[in-house]
Design a protein that fits this description.
Number of helices: 10
Strand content: 15-25%
Helix content: 10-25%
CATH topology: Rossmann fold
Number of strands: 16
Mean pLDDT: 89
Low-confidence stretches: 1-45
CATH architecture: 3-Layer(aba) Sandwich
CATH class: Alpha Beta
Amino acid sequence: MKRFFYLFMVIAILMVGCTQPKTLQTKTSENPEESENPLESSEESEKYQTLLSPNNELSIVRKPEAADYSYINPGKMAELPIHNPNSSELWQMDLRSSDLTNLDLKEDFEDLIYADFDSKTQWPDKLPDDFNPEMIMELGKNPGLGIRELHKKGITGKGVGIAIIDQSLLVDHVEHKEQLKLYEEIHCYAERAAMHGPAVASIAVGKNVGVAPEADLYYIAETHGTVNEQGKFEWDLTWLAKSIDRIVEINRILPEGKKIRVISISLGIGENMSGYKETFESIRKAREEGIYTIYVGSKDFTGLGRNPLKDADDITSYTKGEFWKNKEYYNNQLLIPMDARCTASPTGINDYVYYREGGLSLTVPYLAGLYALACQVNPDISLDVFFFEAFNTSDTVIMDSSTEERLGKIVNPIRLIEKIENMK
C-alpha cells in the first residue's frame, strides 16, 4: 500500500493550513444543529471546512490558491539526485519547480529518465541527447491505447456525469475548467490546491490528457480523517460516506440525459479504517440510484508502466507498473495505464506535471473516464458488464521473447467500446 499514489498525498494534505473564506462559507449559527449546513459544526470548522452550494444550485464554492513547489529544491540546485533502482523510496528524482540551470547533465540519462518534473522546472542547456523534457511531457499527455481515436469519432463522454471525491482542486485549470459543473468541500483540510486533485480530474475529463474530455465533472474535495494531538493521521471514512451521499443528492436535481454515472475515488478502502461500513452503505445506496463507484480494489485491476520515450498508443511501450515491476504477473487483473503520465499541475492554471511513477490512484479516474465513454454509446451498460467486457476484449503482449513472459489483460479501449456499443 505504501506505493499507492494516494498514500503519500496524505503528507501534502497535512502540510497546508486551512482558512475559511468569509465571503464563500455557508452561514452557520453557534448551535451546530441549527446550522444551514448540516455537515458542518463549529468545532470542525476550525480546521476542516465544509462548503456546499447554496440552495442546491450547482456552483464553485471556492477557488483554492495555486500550489508553490519551490520549496522542494530551493535555489539553484548544486547537484542532481541519484536514482537507485533497488530502492523503494519514493520521489528519488523529484525535480518539480526546480532550477537545474547550473548543472551539466549530459551524462545523467539513467537518472533523469526516472525524474518527476513540471512546467516550472528550469532545465540546463546541457542535457543528454535522448532526454527531451518537452517531448516526454507531450507523450505523457496521451491517455494511450487508442483513446484519442475514439475522441475523433465523437466518443468523448459527452452527456455523462463523472463525480470525483479527492483533495482540493485548482478549479480554473485549463484541462478541466469547462467540464467542471460543481466544486464543493466536505471536511476539507486545505487552503491551496493539492497535487492529487488536478491529476485525477485531468485524467478523467482533461481536454488534452483526459479519457472523457467532454464528460461533466462534479467534484467534492474531502479529507477522510483527522490529525490527532500527536500529529498522527487517523482515518475517518464517515466523511467519504457523506460525500458520496452528497453526490447522490446532487444527481437527483440533474436533468435526464445529464446524470452522474460513476464516482471515482482514488483510495483503497480497508476494513481497518473507521467509517468503513458507512462508506459501503453509501456506495450501495448510490448504486441503487444508478451511480457506480470505482475505487482502488473495487475490481480486479492494476496499473501499467510505460517507456517514457515511446508512443502511449503503442501497446509494446507498456511494461509492468513501477511499484510491482519485480513481482510476477498472474494474468488475472485488468491492466490500465498508470506510470509516465503528464497531468494538470496544481502550480498554475496552464501548468502540467509529469509523474514517472503514477501509482494506482491514476488508474481509477482512467477507468471512470472509460466507463463514461461506454455510457455515452450505451446508456444502459452497468459497471459489472463493462468490466466483464473489458477483460474479454483485452490484449496480451510478450515482454521477453527469450522467456516468452507475457503481459496480459491490457485494456483495449477501441475494441471495448465497439463491443459495448453493439450490445444495445
